[in-house]
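Appendix B. Chain record.
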Amino acid sequence: MQQDPNPNPEKKDEKVMDKSLGQMKEGYQSIDEKLKLQDDDSAFMLVGKVLLRILLIIVMIALSPFLLVGLIFALIAAL
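Structure tokens predicted for this chain:
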């Protein structure tokens, strides 16, 4: 009989979660870097960056309950 090379599935889940959290963090840092206010930005560009940042905050707040429900279902499925 072959043994499972990864006998502890919880460690695999943690690795997957760490990888996805890392990807989300990289994505947020990328967007944050692009929306940083620069000294040489025009007034139009400054207003656009501020509005986009506000829009992204609203989207993150709107999606947070769905993410929470998804995490709860994932934990239930893992148990």
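Further analysis of this model is presented in Appendix C.
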